[in-house]
Please model this.
Amino acid sequence: MKKKKILDSIIDNTKTILGALLIALIIRSLIFQPFYIPSSSMEPTLLIGDRIFVSKYSYGYSRHSFPFSPKIFSERIFYNQPKVGDLVVFKTPSDNRTDYIKRLIGLPGDEIQFINGNIFINKKKIERRAIITLDKVRCGKTTLNVKAYEETLPNGHKYIATYNNDGTLQNTKKFKVPKNHFFLLGDNRDCSKDSRYLDSVGYVDHVNLVGKAKIIFFSNDTVTSRMLKFWNLKESFRGERLFKSIK
Model:
């Protein structure tokens, strides 16, 4: 009788654990997934050590919505096309495994080109306004002296982008975005591997989209401190970024 009670208890606990794992898997795959920001390619919008929530439902679902990207279907279902200006998490086309986050600049059919440091979308220069209060950003563990601008995309979306004072990508060829693909850039323009580099990232297929960045739920400066030091929160913990909406 005692052995039966122990066995029943083990079965009940196993069911509870499996149920909890199933719920967590559903939430992670279909609703929200947490991500850690390991690089400075999106400064000043996102900092190294930011933890963010990404909505999985914003663009519909593909195999990359699920852990390990199982080949359960080849296209997207319930697809909603991203908007210019969205901060998008995607699997890099080069390996279909690595998660990147960049800002969507070009939609399918758009033509993008850098001319004298300015971005042109479909031959129209996007508006930008100098931000004099920001003159430095990080690039890994180094610091760049930069010029910062508030850029305004054709749909009115505004964000801040930075350009290295000591040299930036002034001119490029024309990038023509293919059907069902997108052109994405890092806000830290001279510290970002993105769609400008066709051999490593290039145009991103709509199937590779993972989700849309929504909110910063925690932030810890892992450049100055590898771990959160509870005895010296001022050194690493960024309280002002808690639950900050991402734009």
User: Anything to note?
Assistant: The helical segments are 2-31, 233-236. The chain has a mean pLDDT of 89. The CA atoms of residues 146 and 216 lie 24 Å apart.
